[in-house]
Amino acid sequence: MITETTVCVTGASGFIASHIVNQLLAEGYRVRGTVRKSPENYPYLLQLPGASERLELVEADLLRSESFLPAFRECACVIHTASPYVINVKDPEKDLVKPALEGTAAVMEAAGKTCTIKRIVLTSSVAAITDQPDSSKVFTESDWNTRSSLQRHPYHFSKTLAERAAWDYIERKKPHFDLVTINPAMVTGPSIGPAINTTNAMIRDIMNSVYPGILDMNWGFVDVRDTAKAHILAMEKNSACGRYLCSAEVMDMRELVELLSLSEYGNYPLPKRDLSGRFGTVLMTALSWTLPRDTGTYIRTHIGRSIRYGCSKIEQDLGIDFRPVRESILEAVADMISKGHLDRRD
Q1: Which end of the chain is more exposed for a tag (fewer CB within 10 A), N or C?
Q2: How far apart, in Å, are the Cα atoms of 32 and each of 44, 112, 281?
Q3: Over its length of 346 residues, how does the chain's per-residue pLDDT go in tens digits?
Q4: How far apart are the C-alpha atoms of 104 and 164, rounded to whole Å?
Q5: If DSSP codes are grouped into helix, strand and coil, which group holds residue 275?
Q6: CA 166 → CA 108, 160, 172, distances in Å?
Q7: Gap between the Cα atoms of 118 and 175, Å rounded
Q8: Looking at 94, 113, 159, 173, which residue is catalytic?
Q9: How far is CA 158 from CA 71, 117, 124, 166, 227, in A?
């Protein structure tokens, strides 16, 4: 697709966002990305194919609505990805909730002052769906996380508040643009930028013996390139509406360890002790109280429970054909090694 349409991507340097920028450029869009520092700090974006002709990076402050106005000028769509993703923080209100909630409000307000914008696509999360697996339930877009707070899963709380604030703005203001949200599960795959994202860091930790054994936990995974494509399809398809849960496949820790052990990465110190039974779950629940608060809370609310997601809406409405997550995970490991996040073992 070759188009003169300009799309703004907030937080353009992020893991998902950089792939969105890359795919938009590949489709011929003009892209304006917001970043926190001067554009020269992001050479990996400026060197993307098509960037020299069709990518402009603009500094913006997530907490200042007026700083987005130059970035939104003459844009047809805003893909808002900018939001912190950290599990353990000293001040959840300051470090998570404020930037997520006020940042979303700033973007919505700036879009309301930009008459060319027709749609905002917001990167939300399964964290806004639930913060605790329920083995008896299949979670869908109709579910909302109602349990999280500043004390319990503050990251999940921040994502829930931010998405609810966006929908509340649409309901109250009835602006000239509409809203679509993408709610990804654990996003893995290779990174365009030099940083490591939270999901890949978890995989790295599993490979570096951070975990004492194989735990009774599972996660939904999705490739970062599929996640980026979902955002673009949500922008392009006029019929797209509402929320889209984005998860390709659920894997438990045993399956993940087996995948890695049978691959070329089997020489890493992967966990071998089986703690997936009842005794292991009781033991890890007790040990969780010795860990940082939010890590401990995560273990206590997830261990011994199984998550299931229903993703028929994104497959039917957007036509997403997900990559096999096992391939994505192995690509992520190769990428982490090449970028120095994981020691090479020959």
Answers
A1: C
A2: 15, 18, 48
A3: 445 699 999 999 999 999 999 999 999 999 999 999 999 999 999 999 999 999 999 999 888 899 999 999 999 999 999 765 555 667 778 778 888 888 899 999 999 999 999 999 999 999 999 999 998 999 999 999 999 999 898 889 999 999 999 999 999 999 999 999 999 999 999 999 999 999 999 999 999 989 889 999 999 999 999 999 999 999 999 999 999 999 999 999 999 999 999 999 999 999 999 999 999 999 999 999 998 887 888 999 999 999 999 999 999 999 999 999 999 999 999 999 999 999 998 7
A4: 10
A5: strand
A6: 7, 10, 10
A7: 9
A8: 159
A9: 24, 25, 10, 12, 20
The letter for the amino acid at 14 is: G
Q: What stretches of 185-321 adopt beta strand conformation (E)?
A: 186-188, 214-215, 218-223, 242-246, 249-252, 274-275
- The dihedrals phi and psi of 144, each to the nearest 5 degrees, come to -125, 140
User: In the annotation, is 229 catalytic?
Assistant: no
* Predicted model pTM: 0.95
Largest CA-CA distance found in the chain, in angstroms, rounded: 60
Tell me, which fold does domain 6-196+220-250 have in CATH?
Answer: Rossmann fold (3.40.50)
DSSP 288-301: GGGS-HHHHHHHHH
The DSSP string of 45-81 is HHTSTTHHHHEEEEE--TT-GGGGHHHHTT-SEEEE-
Q: Give yes or no for a contact between 181 and 141, defined as CB atoms under 8 angstroms apart.
A: no
CB 247 within 8 A of CB 309: yes
Q: Which residues of 254-265 are buried (b: 16+ CB within 10 A; e: fewer)?
A: bebbebbeeeeb
- Encoded tokens for 60: 């913006």
- Residue spans of the domains in the chain: they are 6-196+220-250
Q: How many helices (H) and strands (E) does the chain have?
A: 14, 12
